[in-house]
Amino acid sequence: MAAVKINQLAVDELPWTIEYDRSKCAMCGKCVAACSFGALKVDVLKIKKTQAKVDEDGFTKEEETWAQPYIKQVVSHTNYCRGCGICKKVCANNAIKPVRNEREVYGTRYRCATGESVKRGGRCNIHTEGRTLDKIKVGRISQMTDPSLDALRHTFDMRTPLGRVMSAENMTFDVKDGNLELKSNMPTNRWIYPIIIGDMSIGALSWRMWEAVAIATAYLNEELGIPIRMCTGEGGIPERLLKSRYLKYMILQIASGHFGWDRIINSMPDMIEDPAGILIKIGQGAKPGDGGLLMAKKVVKHIQEIRGVPKSDLLSPPNHQGLYSIEESVQKMFLSMNAAFKFKVPVAIKVAASSTSVSVYNNLLRDPYNIVGGFFLDGLDGGTGAAHEISLNHTGHPIVSKLRDCYLAAVHQGKQGQIPLWAGGGMGMNGNLAADTFKMICLGANGVFAGRLILQMAGCVGNDFGKCNACNTDLCPVGIATQNPLLVNRLDIDRVAENIVNYFKATDTELKKLLAPVGNSSLPVGRSDALVTVDKNVAERLQIQHVC
């Protein structure tokens, strides 16, 4: 009798199991070929058929043996099913599909076998509470004495600032011959759409995906007149884009790894347009306190050239080295970046939402240089390319309450709106970006940024319940988060760009459909009186009306 291998990884311990119907299978091999994770293989099943017959001499036994090919699930710590469902998509006979295993113990088995922490892409997969934004409704509707507006025919001002906004008493104007004259330069300011395409780097995304987002951004601005801006993420951008007129739609990010900034600095003399802004990333909401990671397998030739690095794992420190206080951040980073672009480009900071966020914001509000151009607050529900699972699942702060705290802190000082508040981390998580944006603006945000939703527009098959979440492996089955040429070519650039454009067209219409009923022609920043909730705890925490 064979020994029982109780410590060997088994199919029923994996996160996903393959449900396979041999009677429907045509053995075309498409599912095996399409599986980027190597979780399927063709195997042979040995079948033995035994029959007993009665003849003159008594009972005799006849045996018939044959081999039958079938699709087998691979059981491995590395080549295992992530539940992406590509096998089901390519199967014409619906013979195969992944099924979520609710009793999986893969994490325990992996740690025992390797002595390493579990790493993955995607986002937090633990959900123990309801989503706050879904508990909030727009409850103040203008009807008679304060009429609502016609969403289809009324003109709406859908612009919000990126850059420092000076208070009236600090503006340096003189009146001369009945005209206002500026005595000194004002801080640089851009009036843009209240939704920014969040920071996703070339490297984390495939070049085809990044190019599709850039094409969509340019089309939205130049053809539709919707001034959406795109953040590059850490790692720089192609040199030809730095020297093109489309740079004005890009927010260049400088993060703790400083990847790609040599090329940006060297391209400055040849820039024909200024970038839309500079974003200094201190922290990321999906894994605060944990640095970024781009695996060596994703650092292909064009990534090496853009970032100026060899082919190796690229680790960003958890914080900017040499910055040990908020004051230093203002003096060193903000001042240097403003000076580099001759004080013509707004410079903002991005931090992870945490219990210390209000302290950071309060200090920035006291900035004596008036050069802090924005405060980007990132919550725990955002996506990330690669991280330790424990960081994704067990660190971070929800965005809604912390945004509200920052806004009310500014109100307490009488400085609301001077440093624009931008919030992200799960925006559009329910599929409706317009609703989330409107509610966040009413709670005090000047605008929002969204990244993961853009990937879903492109065809991302991952979700918050353990499906796929393999952005870090370079095995993305739809070509979004990989540098593997065979997988990248699965992505249709034109179709992705068209999807993004169409989604933002719909979002623009939906935002107006929410502005009109409350009677606002412009963005209702801080209009918390327009919101209600049936959840008493949410009402008390956010200081909005409780209804039942």
List the main descriptive attributes of the protein structure presented here.
2 domains; 3-stranded mixed beta sheet; 28% helix; alpha/beta; 8-stranded parallel β-barrel; Alpha-Beta Plaits; 21% strand; TIM Barrel
Provide a short characterization of the protein structure:
By secondary structure, the chain is of the alpha/beta class. It has 16 helices and 23 strands.
Provide a descriptive summary of the structure in words:
- The chain has 16 helices and 23 strands.
- The protein is of the alpha/beta class.
- The protein has two domains: 11-46 and 72-116, Alpha-Beta Plaits (2-Layer Sandwich); 193-512, TIM Barrel (Alpha-Beta Barrel), CATH 3.20.20.
- It has an eight-stranded parallel β-barrel, surrounded by six helices. The chain has a three-stranded mixed beta sheet with strand order 6-22-23, covered by helices on one side.
- 44% of the residues are buried.
Mean of the pLDDT scores? 90
Instruction: Return the CATH class of the largest domain.
Output: Alpha Beta
How many strands, what sense, and barrel or not for the largest sheet? 8 strands, parallel, barrel
Q: What sort of overall outline do the alpha carbons produce when their principal axes are compared?
A: elongated
Give the number of domains.
Answer: 2
Strands, total number: 23
Task: State the separation between the terminal residues, measured CA to CA.
Answer: 67 Å
Q: List low-confidence stretches.
A: none
Q: What order do the helices and strands come in, and which of them pair?
A:
Elements: E1 16-20, H1 30-34, E2 40-55, E3 58-73, H2 86-90, E4 96-100, H3 106-114, E5 119-122, E6 136-138, E7 160-162, E8 173-176, E9 179-182, E10 190-192, E11 195-197, H4 207-222, E12 229-231, H5 239-242, E13 250-254, H6 261-267, E14 277-281, E15 293-294, H7 301-307, E16 314-315, H8 326-340, E17 347-352, H9 357-365, E18 372-378, E19 384-388, H10 389-394, H11 399-413, E20 421-424, H12 433-442, E21 447-450, H13 452-458, H14 485-488, H15 493-518, E22 531-533, H16 536-542, E23 545-546
Parallel strand pairs: 11-12, 11-21, 12-13, 13-14, 14-17, 17-18, 18-20, 20-21, 22-23
Antiparallel strand pairs: 1-4, 2-3, 5-19, 6-22, 7-10, 8-9, 15-16
Helix pairs in contact: 4-15, 9-11, 12-15
